[in-house]
């Protein structure tokens, strides 16, 4: 790509069904100097689209702001429904350092974006993760609790005053903007349509329930498939591995007579997350990333 500094951004938009709207939002990342669209995927049950884009800091910032503006124009949260928790048309906008840039610069970039989207579009925001203004705001789940429907009342409380803005956008709600380390969005599908089972497993495996340290999890209903899913974010895949999440879900599912029928990775995944999982299941001894052909070629 030839970028001097590389920042990744993974904005999540609250639209996973109207492909025309999704394309109009994603168009903001196409044909821009200093920006490369890597991936985007949509899920109708979640009613959500996840975009992965990289670029030089300022070029990426401009494209992200443009995409947010388009999403605010096209998405009306007053009629929105979906399985995934959400509080705005643009639900979360994380910046991740990739090459020759540190987390502090990503924090500053996130603050610039949060400020600009309020000035341009009157979209309020919370700063989260490494950008958070208070310890309580580091965790996205805590910020999002109450979702869009409860957010108007929530932000009246002193401890939940937005970092930018004072009132919800009337149709687009509010979003979270921040900086974080790379994560793996990993979902496991079960051979049951009982959401209570997926919820129970999610509560057991996530950090808040005494499970895996860097795992956030929830149960999701997949209506089209007549199945349920344990949907996870592995926030540090080097300490909570993909194979650990898989094995723990399988272990907990046994008590309900349920088995895994498939799993998926949403968006892009760091190569080492899959290498570590392959190493575990194949019992590889002393395997190093340097042994991967493509890894050596990319050097």
Offer a concise description of the structure.
It is built from nine helices and eleven strands.
Structure report:
This protein has 299 residues and is α+β, with helices and mostly antiparallel strands. The protein folds into 2 domains: 6-179, Formiminotransferase, N-terminal subdomain (Formiminotransferase-cyclodeaminase, Chain B, domain 1), CATH 3.30.990.10; 184-298, Alpha-Beta Plaits (2-Layer Sandwich), CATH 3.30.70.670. It has 9 helices and 11 strands. Strands 1, 2, 3, 4, 5, 6 and 7 form a 7-stranded mixed β-sheet that branches. The chain has a 4-stranded antiparallel β-sheet with strand order 9-10-8-11, with helices on one face. The chain starts with 5 loop residues before the first strand and ends with a helix. The mean pLDDT is 94.
């Amino acid at each position: 790509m030839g970028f001097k500094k590389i920042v990744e951004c993974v904005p999540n938009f609250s639209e996973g069904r109207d492909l025309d709207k999704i394309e109009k939002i994603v168009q903001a990342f196409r044909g821009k100097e200093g920006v490369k669209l890597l991936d985007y995927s949509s899920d109708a049950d979640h009613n959500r689209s996840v975009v992965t884009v990289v670029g030089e800091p300022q070029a990426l910032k401009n494209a992200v702001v443009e995409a947010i503006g388009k999403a605010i124009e096209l998405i009306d949260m007053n009629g929105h429904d979906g399985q995934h928790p959400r509080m705005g048309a643009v639900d979360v906008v994380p910046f991740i350092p990739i090459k020759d840039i540190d987390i502090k610069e990503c924090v500053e970039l996130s603050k610039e974006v949060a400020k600009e989207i309020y000035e341009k579009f009157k979209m309020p925001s919370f700063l989260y993760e490494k950008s958070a203004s208070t310890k309580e705001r580091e965790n996205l789940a805590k910020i999002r609790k109450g979702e869009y429907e409860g957010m108007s009342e929530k932000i009246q409380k002193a401890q939940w005053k937005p970092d930018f803005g004072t009132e919800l956008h009337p149709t687009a709600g509010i979003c979270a903007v921040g900086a974080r380390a790379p994560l793996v969005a990993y979902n496991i599908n079960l051979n049951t349509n009982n959401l209570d089972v997926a919820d129970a497993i999610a509560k057991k495996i996530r950090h808040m329930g005494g499970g895996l340290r860097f795992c956030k999890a929830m149960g999701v209903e997949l209506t089209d498939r007549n199945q349920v899913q344990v949907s996870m974010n592995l926030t540090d895949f080097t300490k909570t591995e993909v194979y650990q999440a898989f094995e723990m879900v399988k272990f907990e599912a046994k008590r309900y007579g349920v088995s895994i029928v498939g799993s998926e990775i949403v968006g892009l995944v760091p190569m080492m997350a899959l290498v570590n999982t392959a190493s575990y299941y194949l019992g590889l001894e002393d395997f190093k990333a340097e042994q991967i052909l493509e890894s050596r070629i990319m050097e």
